[in-house]
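Re-running Dipeptide/oligopeptide/nickel ABC transporter ATP-binding protein to confirm reproducibility after the cluster update. Everything else is unchanged from the original entry.
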Amino acid sequence: MSTDATGPATSTPAAPPTRHPNTQALTIAHATKIYKARGQGRGARVTAVDDVSFVIEPGAAIGLVGASGSGKSTLAKLITGSERPTSGTIRFGDIEVNALRSGGLRDYHGRVQMVFQDPYGALNPLHTVEYTIMRPCQNILGLSARDAVRRVHELLEIVGLMPAAQYATKLPHQLSGGQRQRVVIARALACDPDVIVADEPVSMLDVSLRAGVLSLLRRLRQERGLSLLYITHDLLSARVVTDHILVLNRGRIVERGQTKYVLQHPEDGYTKRLLDAVATPFVRQPPAGAVGASADTTAA
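Result of re-run:
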């Protein structure tokens, strides 16, 4: 393990193999996940995800919204392949995710990356920023150590941690929460993924830091053509970064549609209660022009 900083290259920047636009849809079809219920008697079961179906088209930004316990994080685990559905399928193009094993799953993780909720627990406290971001560059892209270090500096600049050389040698405890989450995002970008699954990426950050991370996610999606599944209980942050929204309650999708339109005209009682739980004086405005369109008054 190398913990020494290596200065960023000033000539030819390191880059992964030529990136082609993502043309693969991520399709969730009738996904169900049932667990054994602890402490509720023999044979008791709990359905965390119940017959969920939707498609993330290339370049789309989908919001998955629900309160704690609604099944959001379980669904994220199914999509990223860390758990398998009890029934139903997850497909990325012609790849059946729930049938993948070891090597195939590693390759899939190069295409679909996770950004975790907890920036404090997502980073190994003994590893420098440089080492943390280098590993996927080497393990998935196959870059040499020299090229991986160059890419680390490139990624740090992309996520707004500059000068890169200053941050590369830092350990997690030397970073703020917002800086840690930017490192987590840089690590997710290291293998040049097609899809980012962001599970409550700003919920543990101070309010003053959230807008910066949300703005970063939105910019990365626009500049890199990424597909984004943004998982949150916060309807306002979903409005900032997503085009369409799915509302999840007790493992089932109870409402879906264009984000701004759903927030302005919620139909399901559960969606209305989620909106009533937050201060949203500007959300339920009549749409101007096309259905679902309104002036964007949310600061990024």
